[in-house]
Amino acid sequence: MRSAALDEPAAVPVEAEDGRTALGGAALRLLSVAIVLGLWEVAGRGGVNPALPAFSETALAALAMLADGSLPAAFLVTLEPLVLGLAISTLLGVGLGIAMGLWRPAEWLGVPVLVILQAAPLAALVPLLTFAYGIGLTSKTLVVCIMALPVIVLNAYRAIRHTPQSLVEMGRVFLASPRIIVLRIVLPAASPVIFAGLRLGVAAGFIGAILAELLITPTGIGDLVTYHQSVADYPRMYAAIAAIVLASALTIGLLERVEIRLFRPERAGR
Amino acid sequence: MSAPSTATATRPTAPSTRPIVEVRGVSKVYGKVRALHAIDLEFEPGRLTSLLGPSGCGKTTLLKIIAGLIPPSEGEVRIQGRPVTGPGPERAFVFQDFALLPWATVLKNVAFGLELRGVPRAEREERARHWIAEVGLAGFEQSYPHQLSGGMRQRVGLARALAVDAQVLLMDEPFSAVDEQTRRKFQEDLLGLVAREKKTFLFVTHSIEEAVYLSDRIVLLSPRPGRVAGIVEPKIRRDGDPERIRRDPVYLDTVETIWRGLKGYVE
Predict the structure, then answer these.
(1) Which is nearest to B223 in space by CA: B52, B31, B50, B30?
(2) CB B77 within 8 A of CB B26
(3) Which end of chain A has the smaller Cβ count within 10 Å, N or C?
(4) Which residue has the higher pLDDT, B112 or B189?
(5) ipTM of the shown complex
(6) Distance between CA A187 and CA A161 in Å, rounded?
(7) What is the arithmetic mean of pLDDT over B33-57?
(8) What stretches of chain B adopt beta strand conformation (E)?
(9) Contact criterion met (CB below 8 Å) for B110 and B159
(10) d(CA B214, CA B242)
């Protein structure tokens, strides 16, 4: 009855299957978000803790803060050190990681410093940074960099190091120059892990930006969180926290799309 | 060790011209390990020669030295009389693990070698399509490697090597990562290809059956250090039904002779 299907080229059913799982995956993701928000609503209404507002209260507070302009204004302030820090960390981090992966002296110089930087408790460094660079943009940008840079560099470095040897040999056998091997084989092969590092780096950068605002001087989102906590307006405090979490998640999702678009077309729709 | 000398014709293509690949006194030392010791070999154009031996005999190392991927510690390799200093356009390689670019389609993978040689897009895609059809993958040009089976992936690797039109094809255990049924079909197809293409094939394998089935000539390598233990030229008729070869008494005798010769090296 269905034996004819066996002779069909394998690529066709594979694509159909991919389409179906992508749809199912999206539904599951929505369901998971719905469950978390539902639990939040129940916990907030059940009075687990007077400082925990229900999701609906938080959402209303967020809408109110959007309407009165306080949330967008705070975002603009927080985004400044965040975007600056992430841009520096991405360019410097990926560049450094690639250099360390390709060139031994850079590896020897870089790895110990970065491992220490990654292990360092950031909160202990903040007073030093404040002392050296004041309470302005420089210190906050540096906190973002300290959080984001090591993980970006180390991932890029490991990604380059783990290029499959046979792919490099393939390039050489088919007469690729060293430059072409790096551009056409090593970098695309490393891109999934480099981008995994970037996603972790962006998440860490968001944490750094908020930490900086809580530890150095309250500005932007950090200011909203601190202020509303001090006046016990918990829905607004949670709205500010939820907004930054959402922004972080959306940025990371966007990064994934950019990666697939630029380097890994074969993963589109998977 | 001498060849079973039943008087039957080999493949019609075997002009005894000057060798296309010459290996002269090649040794390879890794630290204290001698992987290859004083290898002297010649390969004539248009024939398929297998390098056969147990693991540790340095057969892949020898193939990669001929490819120009690894420099020899002593001795030299000459291709068409010119010493090898690195990879060259007259050689192509088929990898054991296929070595396909996972982010590129079948078409782009097959055209990759041509692209690196600066062949314009329209021309290289036309040639790639030709070889994709030739290895039996027509219709899969826009598929990605992860959508193909292991056997199909190696067909892509083979098409890529054929597309650059190198005279010498170096194949490093190309069928060891595909299942037995696929491997048999692949071996039959390769026989057809060798007969049609008149290229020189150097084929590394650890399978005695595979070597005898495919080869005009088998170089037996012994391990630690790798050296030439013997050369066998199976006199098997390959112009008829490829299925018949596996029942040919010469085939079976040759497999037996080689096994008896290599047995001593297997621990």
Answers:
(1) B52
(2) yes
(3) N
(4) B112
(5) 0.88
(6) 11
(7) 90
(8) 21-30, 33-43, 48-52, 74-79, 82-83, 91-94, 168-172, 200-205, 217-222, 227-232
(9) yes
(10) 10
The helix (run of H) or strand (run of E) holding residue B175 is none
The list of chain A residues with pLDDT below 70 reads: 1-22, 269-270
Q: Strand order of the sheet with strand B48-52?
A: B91-94, B168-172, B200-205, B48-52, B217-222, B227-232
Whose structure tokens read 């006046």?
A231
Facing residue for A170 by CB, picked from B99, B105, B152: B99
Q: Do B147 and A14 touch (CB under 8 A)?
A: yes
| Model confidence, pTM | 0.81
Number of other CB atoms surrounding residue A119 within 10 Å: 8
Amino acid at A124: A
Query: Helix axis angle, A187-215 relative to A220-230, nearest 10°?
Result: 40
DSSP per-residue codes, A121-166 = -HHHHHHHHHHHHTTSHHHHHHHHHHHHHHHHHHHHHHHHHT--HH
The angle at the Cα of A153, spanning A147 to A159, to the nearest 5 degrees, equals: 135
Amino acid of residue A265: P
Q: How far is CA A10 from CA B99, B138, B140, B149, in A?
A: 21, 12, 9, 9
- Residue B133: alpha-carbon gap to chain centroid: 21
Q: What is the pLDDT of residue A73?
A: 94
Record the tokens describing residue A90, joined without a space: 């991405």
B204/A contact by beta carbon, under 8 A? no
3-class secondary structure, B30: strand
Could you say which DSSP state residue A5 is in?
H
Residue of A nearest to B141 (CA): A11
- The one-letter code for the residue type at A239 is A
A264 in contact with chain B, both atoms CB, cutoff 8 A: yes
Can you tell me the distance from the alpha carbon of B159 to that of B151, in angstroms, rounded to the nearest whole number?
Answer: 12
Q: Judging by beta carbons within 10 Å of its beta carbon (0-12, 13-18, 19+), is residue A4 exposed, middle or buried?
A: exposed
A3: Cα within 13 Å, side-chain hemisphere: 1
Candidates 1.10.3720.10, 3.30.505.50, 3.40.190.10, 1.20.120.450; CATH matching A53-267 = 1.10.3720.10
Give per-residue pLDDT as tens, B46-93. Answer: 899 999 988 878 899 999 999 999 999 999 999 999 999 999 999 999
pLDDT of B55:
81
- CA–CA dist B91, B110 (Å, integer): 16
- Total count of residues recorded for chain B: 267
Q: What's the gap in Å between the CA of A83 and the closest CA on chain B?
A: 30
* Rounded Cα–Cα distance for residues B166 and B131 (Å): 13
Q: Which two tokens stand for residue B252?
A: 């079976």
Which residue in chain A is spatially nearest to B70 when comparing CA positions? Answer: A169
**Average pLDDT of the residues in B141-162:** 94
CA atoms within 13 A on the CB side of A127: 2
